[in-house]
Amino acid sequence: MPIRQRTNLRTKSVARRPAARSSLRVGNIALAGVFAGAALLGACDMSVGQSTSSLVTVTAVPNPPLDPRCGLDAVIVLDASSSVRNYNNPPDANGAVDLIAGAGNAFLGAFADTNSRVAVVSYNADPRLQLDLTAVTTDSLAAGGAHGIAMGDPGGPQGPMSPTTGYSEHARNGSGTNWEAGLVYAQNVLENNGRADVPKLVIHVTDGRPTRHLTPDGTVTDEGGMAVHVAEAAEVADQLKASGVHIFAVGVGRAPQFSEELQATSGPDVFDQTQPGDAFDVVNDDVILAADFDQLEELLRGVADQICGASLTITKLSSTPEAPNSFAPAEGWAFSASVDAAAGGYNWTLPDAAPATEKTAISDAEGNADFQWQIFDDAAWGAGTVTVTESQQSGYAMQNRALCVRTRAGAVDFFFVNVSLPAGSFDVELQAGDDVNCVVRNRADPNATVPADIEVVKTASTNLLPEEGGDVTFTFTVTESTGNGSVELHTLTDSIYGDLNGQGDCSVPQTLAPSGSYTCSFTTTLTGFNAGFTETNVVTAEGTDENGVEVSDTDDETVVIGDNPPDMHMCKVINPEEAPASGGYIELLVYIFNDSTWSDRITIQSVTDERFGDLLDPANPLVADGYCTAGLDPGGSYMCAYTVFFAGGTPGDVYYDTATVVATDDEGNYVSSSYETELRVVAD
């Protein structure tokens, strides 16, 4: 998979770092006080002066709460930089690789046979797709299985990867830490192969700050420094989060030293494994700090247990009238489940969290119907007997036994349950933390027919708009999904935009041939919303099959308004440029320019000087007089003027002095700019 070239949609960037300017835009500077500010501004062109800016932003897009249920699509992104390979506890050829593999397998084990799919990506300076989204099964986790190989199973048919180094699959030669590249690969995987309407998760495991990022053409660079590397990774993370993906940024070892950088790619809520009183919240936590690689396995197993607690997956297989003895996953079968356990000791999480004594789940395209519980009290849960009943369909005969596989604390066992007929029900016992998958078969009557049905898919041209808004094109595709008959599509409506007939190129009614599709789209403009605004709308397609039976389907899409970062630069003038050796008062003029391209007013938080200290502090003994405005509109400029005391020096000495201005925009994003000037000491 080639590294995807970066798009022009920029929601987070590092403020430009200009070299010494030959000219500076003044705008409407408010001149006040006793200094001839406008006349002195030209001194900012002096060759020794140089303005630099940097940006530290609050995460522009919130990390969406994680839906804590099985059946998710997840990507594990693994740092494979040299520091991981050289980790010397234990001091073996693989460094921390085997520890990471063990932790990854512990995480994956909780999702075996639960209709969950997990991909594995690794990176150093460059990324690698170890494994695309693949169903996590007992077989895939076994030695030689797809996930076993991807996580670095040395016994697998593809590993170890390098016979010269002995490194396992994801620990390969190369150095550098490119967070952005790993996240871009994760984004590609989920965009290209992710399923609609299932939770999506990225787990990024790293032991250090990024040292690389991608240029707009997709090549790798180490230029720009850490702030740029982090900002570029955060931009990709924002796009992932805007599309509904929850990101766990997992820092290992020295992680507390770069917690802020991890937060920039995830969110502000931090769980620290080293803090005894810290409780992990799988729904809302963003950053996870692991004590060391040795503790990573315990940590990730705990994460997985909270996501996928006691769960039961029914895999429905059925045959067709044409091939009654050939079974395949069957979609659209209803199963109800009830729990024989004391109330108050558990909550339902799948198929939904609403209180109920019985719930119904419908098998998906893979034939899976999922049930899951969050258990608070093991004693109240007890044996946890779950009674499952199939809603049988005419033309099919349910088989009298179901084959089940249970995963409990990493151990796997197989067993049969008897199906009570004609009721179509059976019992399964689950303990807290158990994951059970039962395969149920129905044989088709050779004379039966399957009715037609439809599926609608809604997509947006972008899930993330800049703060000023913009155009979004919504596309709708309705497909006859069974191939067994035609459907007359008579209604296409949107929860926000109403009847779509006549909007864009959408037109109904439409006739869908068996397995045929109809696609239309329309474009709308989203403006006037604050950063962080989220619009989620649902399309509903309705039709009638050849027998007059009503069929329908829904799909949703979300668009988020991002946060444009602020931009500013400054200039400083010392008047006079020469100070007497005996000392005395001099003037500092600080010019501030709001270069933000959007309607972000910036508020000045601090003006500091490395020689004269905090210029806004009224108790500063070196500042005799001064003033500075509190806020500045986009495109505006302002001059802050100060009288400061210079203690004196040796004639001929030259002092290089840097002032720094820090400001925030209306979303709380910080931007700073610095400017260096020189002060020459002359004889009195």
| Major sheet summary line | 8 strands, mixed
Q: Class of the largest domain, according to the CATH hierarchy?
A: Alpha Beta
Please give the number of β-strands.
41
3D shape: elongated
The helix fraction, in percent, is 10-25%
**Mean pLDDT figure:** 79
Describe what you observe in this structure.
This protein folds into four domains: 37-57 and 565-682, Immunoglobulin-like (Sandwich), CATH 2.60.40.10; 73-307, von Willebrand factor, type A domain (Rossmann fold), CATH 3.40.50.410; 310-444, Immunoglobulins (Immunoglobulin-like, Sandwich), CATH 2.60.40; 454-561, Sandwich (Immunoglobulin-like). Helix content is 13%, strand content 40%. It has ten helices and 41 strands. The strands form eight sheets. Strands 11, 12, 14, 16, 18, 19, 20 and 22 form an eight-stranded mixed sheet that branches. Helix 3 packs parallel to helix 9 and helix 6 packs parallel to helix 7. The longest helix has 17 residues, at 226-242. Residues 73-303 form the VWFA domain. It comes from Haliangium ochraceum (strain DSM 14365 / JCM 11303 / SMP-2). This is von Willebrand factor type A. Pfam families: DUF7507 (PF24346), VWA_2 (PF13519).
